[in-house]
Amino acid sequence: MAFVANSLRTLSKLGTLAVHQRTFPVGGVRVLDCVHRGMASFKKVDLSGVFPPLPTPFDQDEKVNHEHLRNNVTKWNEIDFRGYVVQGSNGEYTYLSDEERVELVRTVKQAAAPGKLIIAGSGCESTQATIAMTQKMAEAGADVAMVITPFYFKGRMTSQAFKNHYEKVASASPIPVILYSVPANTGVDLPADVVAALSQHPNIIGIKDSAGDVSSWNTLTVVKASVFCPVVEIELYLNTHTVVLVAGAVGCVAALANTLGNEVCQLHKLCKEGKMDDAMKLQHRLIAPNSAVTRKFGVPGLKVAMEWFGYYGGPTRSPLLPLTPEEEESMRADFQKNGFL
Hints:
Elements: H1 11-18, E1 23-26, E2 29-32, E3 49-51, E4 53-54, H2 66-76, E5 83-86, H3 98-111, E6 117-121, H4 127-139, E7 144-148, H5 159-172, E8 177-181, H6 183-186, H7 192-198, E9 204-209, H8 217-220, E10 226-227, H9 236-239, H10 244-247, E11 251-253, H11 261-272, H12 276-296, H13 298-308, H14 325-336
């Protein structure tokens, strides 16, 4: 799970580049004071809270089923989510056409309860395509664009290439932009100096970093970008009493929230309130189920788990394969032994 920000590997480098940047809080989000430099104003968005990254529901013939999506969103509306991430990794966005991606955002926007924030994954491999997709996502109702790092020509994805890409996208985007780094899937990561530099852009408001480097979250709070974190994912957060929320993060994107939404929101609330003993007890119960629907079994596992809790999961789109009976039994045990089934 993870919405996040922790992509900074070199703490001293980020500290040197960003520590002197003037920031101020806006609705739980830290933004740079750009006005004194003559930069244009930009939309202020409160990103605090829990965001489930929505899976894409397919029929048995692998066609997108919007009715199942609307039904799922109607149920999720009853949970205290801040909003929804549409077309992230859990949405199998790499297997969808441009039209499918945009229509899914439109459906979620229409089905979402008033006040729910819609974050749409608009990243493509080229800068030009990303700009076009981001504009289409905004027209379909997205409030924020989440832009994954380009990665196909990874040997040429230098710091300058990333900086150039994100600055062009953010400048052309009609909605705020969140950086998205997920090295496990892309094989590339955003270097510290790039994140520090991009934090100065008035339309880049946050970073979702799924790299898993806990040590950098504290430092990230000195830059403008809001910090999103996988609150449930790593036991270390609570054992060391350095939960990223305490360090300055504002929320999380959690795959597990698609199935155990109330529990993930409760964990977030406990952390925000500083009730660490209670948070630790709950987190210990959530670790195994979270690992099962992320690292161990991924999207196929998440979709099976959704069925257990009354949502439509359905099949994945090829070439992703369904779980084997043995894998499903193993995942069920992870939920059962922690009292969720």
